[in-house]
Amino acid sequence: MTQLDDSYDVVVLGGGAAGLNAALMLARSRRSVAVIDAGAPRNAPAQGVHGLLGREGMSPLELLELGRAEVRGYGGDVVAGRVVNVARVNRAPEPGIVADERDSVQVGPGDGAAAGAGRRSDVEEFFVTLDDGRTVRARRVLVATGLADELPDVPGLREHWGHDVLHCPYCHGWEVRDQRIAVLASGPMSVHQALLFSQLSDDIVFLSHTADPLSDEDVEKLVARGIRIVDGKVVEVLGADRLTGVQLADGTVIARDALVVAPRMNTRATFLTELGLVPEPHPSGMGDHIPADPVGRTSVPGVWIAGNATDPSAQVGAAAAAGAMAGAQINAELVMAETAAAVAAHRADSVESASV
């Protein structure tokens, strides 16, 4: 297991596509960076990653292993652990000095650590605490902890999750094309899901389950696309190795090959509340998220976020791209801070030289 150093330029919370790609960008910019990974990727049950150019169909776990190796190849650390708290630490600079000597960055030729400009201008730092008591100091924090899928409470459903119980037509749709598909009404996106999956199969059933009654407009859309609406609560998902259908409360069995659900998507970054980053409902109604600007900057200076923790609908490619953007922006912000410090030091030296 890689050991954590005492401090880094950037600590990335989460080792999925967003976190690893951010770390890769930072490490290639000669930033000291650590990725803390709890080892529970959301897409672990899936057989393959789809819609990712050049990596189509690759095992999600294999993709992450390659990513870890790439980050380590540029001097980044990838550490197993689960973060439980992030605390902001404000330190005043010493009189006449932008930041104290502990903040000097010494870099030798070929060193993969931070190539800083000397003393740092930013005195705001963060302490990241892991569940085993380890702590690490960071100048910047990038949150890439992803989300957790809260599935409907239907017996048998979780056992098939990621295989023949699906949620995304772009992630899994091709694999169930032309099959008998049921869509379980479980949230505001269920009708939208049914319409998207109707592009992939002519045999779609919409199960109203316990959802609110459909609007006339939604009924018209489903009927127009040839989607049959079935009322009644689903009490069990049937099948051992393979899904064979669903059973309704009245005993009716509907034979199906795949079941589509819309899980509630809950961000895992709930440990940021003390910093003032409280999860908010996502505009889509799919779950919650922590808002950020288009490049990943949160409302708390120094804390950035990328991937599903802020964008529940982001697939692997989009999450990785968001991580790359956030990583580049964090590096640029640090460069500007270090430049300001260098300018201030240069001016101070010039004044001192002139007075001699």
Please tell me about this protein's structure:
It is a single chain. This protein has 356 residues and is of the alpha/beta class. It folds into two domains: 233 residues, FAD/NAD(P)-binding domain; 108 residues, FAD/NAD(P)-binding domain, CATH 3.50.50.60. Helix content is 24%, strand content 23%. Strands 1, 2, 3, 4, 5, 6 and 19 form a seven-stranded mixed beta sheet that branches. About 8% of the residues have low confidence.
Task: Report a brief summary of the structure.
The protein has six helices and 19 strands. The chain has helices spanning 17-28, 60-73, 169-172, 190-197, 216-224, 316-355, and strands spanning 7-13, 33-37, 77-80, 83-90, 124-130, 135-143, 147-150, 165-166, 181-184, 204-207, 228-230, 234-238, 245-248, 253-255, 258-260, 264-267, 280-281, 288-289, 303-305.
